[in-house]
Amino acid sequence: MASTISAATLTVTTTESITLNGSNMGATNTLSISSINEINQRIIAVTHGAVRTLFEFGATTGAGTFVAADVKYIRLTNKDDGVLIEINLETASSNCWVGLTAGQSLVLSTANTLLEADDDTTIAAPTLQNLTKISANVAPVGGVVDLDCYIASA
Question: Is 68 helix (H, G, I), strand (E, B) or coil?
Answer without folding.
Answer: helix
